[in-house]
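FORM 7B - TANDEM STRUCTURE REPORT

SECTION 1: FIRST PROTEIN
SEQUENCE AND TOKENS:
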Amino acid sequence: MKKRILIAAIFVLAASAVYATPFFQVGPMVLYRHSALDLADTDKLTDINSYGFGADARLNLFSWVSVDIPAAYSYGGGVHTVGTNPSLNLNIPAASFLDIAIGLALDLDFQFDQGANAWYVNGRPVDEFSNAFMGATMAYRLALTLNFGIISISAAAAVPMAGCFQSFNAIPSWTDSRVSVALLFNFL
């Protein structure tokens, strides 16, 4: 009987180690560029221009705190855009293989306008970066991550606030919400 309990305990500990939250995660990401409320619109859902492609990188500092930096590239109207919303999250381990991250993010868009041959940050010239940063929209961020050994699958949603970093207003703007999916490779 004691031998069976010992074998079961080793199995549970080994399974927990395999599915534990890794220290560093990185991988490809797909972002739906329209509002998450438009997911039922099949015309937008099937249009490749509705998506941004990029990468997601995460650093899980403790089992309950993480920093997430997703970034997606898109092109339209002669403007190249890399949009990112780095976030600081509180992680809630719902199961040995499931993490729920709830946090605050800052929306930053870096754009290169080919016609003007100029760089912009959140629509402002790059030399006004401090003003662009202070005027950046803040967002609530929720991510669900399934951890499977060396690979994780994550689905995330970002809901912008009505205010910005400089003038905080916590009212969510549901019509501007975005969703993304990432395949992450786990390290450490």
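SECTION 2: SECOND PROTEIN
SEQUENCE AND TOKENS:
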Amino acid sequence: MKKLVLVFLFVCTCCLGFAKERESKTFLVLFDEAELKLLQTDMGSIAEQLNPFFPTKTYEGNSELALLIEIPTTTFNECLLGEYWVSLSDGRRFQLQQLAFRVFDLSENKALYQRYVGKYESDLEQKKKAQKLAKPATNP
């Protein structure tokens, strides 16, 4: 019986040790500063409402206001994030997609970018091969 328990614990420990980390998705939400001022709110208060559920980072600079949201499940998409309700200081409630200028799924865009780079590199490689084959034929 002791051996069975030890084997069970060993297998469980190995499974946990070699388990893949769950992939998460990162979303970029852009806000128009003038629109937020018109609604008498700021990006910090929006981030505070999302922070108990998802880790967030805010960026303010010379361009649009940006909010990065990391969501632990990969089944989440821009539409579901946009439907999240945000309460303003005066009690009004808006969906995030109504407040945001644009919502981007950075994980999806990264995969798309990798596909484009791969296709470009394969096309470039084919052109190089075609040039190498054409060069000896023209030098007799």
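SECTION 3: OBSERVATIONS ON SECOND PROTEIN
The helical segments are 2-18, 33-38, 43-50, 78-82, 96-99, 106-138.
The first helix runs from residue 2 to 18.

SECTION 4: SIGNATURE
Preparer initials: ____
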